[in-house]
Amino acid sequence: MNDPIIRPGEFPTICAPATPQAVSALAVIRMSGPRALEIAGKVFRSQACGDLTKSEGYRTWFGTVKGPDGEFLDQVLLSVFRAPHSYTGEDSVEFSCHGSLYIRETLLRVLIDNGAVLAGPGEFTQRAFMNGKMDLTQAEAVADLIASENRTTHKLALDQMRGTFSKELAELREQLLNVASLMELELDFAEEDVEFANRDTLRSLMDKLLEHMDGLCESFRMGNTLKKGVPVAIAGVVNAGKSTLLNALLGEEKALVTPIAGTTRDTIEDVLVLEGIPFRFIDTAGLRSLGEVDTDSQQYIEKLGVERSLETIRMAPVLLLVLDVSQPETYEQSLQLLKTHRKEHTVLIVNKIDSTSNKDVALDYVSRTLCNMSVTNDSKSLTNKLSILPVSARDKTGLEAVKNWLIQEIRPVLDTYSITLTNVRHYQELYTAGQALLRVREGLDASLSTDLLTPDLRIALHHIGSITGEISTEDILGEIFSRFCIGK
Length: 488
Ligand SMILES: Nc1nc2c(ncn2[C@@H]2O[C@H](COP(=O)(O)OP(=O)(O)OP(=O)(O)O)[C@@H](O)[C@H]2O)c(=O)[nH]1
Ligand SMILES: [Mg+2]
Fold this sequence. Notes:
- This protein is α/β, with parallel strands linked by helices.
- Helices cover 47% and strands 17% of the residues.
- The strands form 2 sheets. The protein has a 7-stranded mixed beta sheet with strand order 3-4-5-6-2-1-7.
- Bound molecules: guanosine-5'-triphosphate and magnesium ion (MG).
- Guanosine-5'-triphosphate binds next to helix 8.
């Protein structure tokens, strides 16, 4: 009865668990391929359904499945999908059985005994790609969707899965193809020295394409930032309470806190998701001028920490500048940092507000110091649109205002990026294509002949095509789908 042999010329029928390998109320086992209904029909019995191979698609049947010796194994629900209206584009079934490890493994074994093979990682999605149900970027987005942990990464994956990015690429490719075919035509008529592609039109088209690709590559930086969390540097002079603020925001004792100035040496970071936006808070070493120090002294370590802090502040788009309200003598030094390190998104955190008897007076004093500095420095931008938030990191007051400020600052920025390139492979391909186009653009300026321009055009086309999978090699496919989990 057993029929493990794959029929010649046929894609094997694959099966795999789609739910995790753990005891649960229910488990799902899926099977896809030309023989999915036939194999399922051998192990599944249902009075209502009768011959499963004749079942229409989008139907769910209640019935039983049997074990290797024909014994009753479980009661299940079996969903039927008929090609091409299934995830993979092939005939597919999904068994919802009880989530015992024994039932799951036995059911899989019976399916394999009857001719199915165990799927590799991502093989269902690979089939969907092969059958034209989605292009490569969409298939990759499925893996991102499964891995998404918050609303932002979920939205990025969904946008990509809906094909927004693919559509944009397809347009790019189409325009390039038009140019390339005209130039290839010129090659065919090389003897006659004709110009089918007007060089001025070509030049402006190249400029447009390059600008477009630049924008996409730029959005990779943004997309990547989003995946890892928007970097938020917590900076200020020593002892201002930066580490206490980090701990209070994260709700855990992540960084060491002591009354000793210069406690934090290395940057310490962790991600916190606020209303779906991942923020990566980075606590830095307190900034103070250490001058010349011996390389074998303790101070040297602190100096290295300070250098690292400055680098972090430079890279992060958001700055929480922490000021210790109980130390007015540090105000100027703290506020000087606004001059040197102000970001587009900066907030002044007036910390240790618990230590003042009159909060309003203290805040007013900070504001006045800031205004005075602005006047003396002739730099009105210091106070311009700067939010000042009173906080007690120790008592955990004022934190909601800090979180709200972050959300209000960053959400509009994220909303402007509707199409975001987040995948490093896409970025590499686009970048290489862009480099090739740049060479074509330079070649046009140098009035290079068509036969010298076309190779780079072909390279650009090849790389754009390999993003969506129009041009794909086995190696690329193997690498992409191996990152999936089994059963997807
Ligand atoms: N009263 C009061 N004390 C605070 C507050 N926040 C921090 N402190 C105290 O200030 C001291 C320094 O706190 P840290 O969080 O280590 O300061 P830091 O800015 O990280 O210091 P460095 O890493 O040395 O630059 C500790 O004794 C904290 O308990 C606060 O809101 N109120
Ligand atoms: Mg610290």
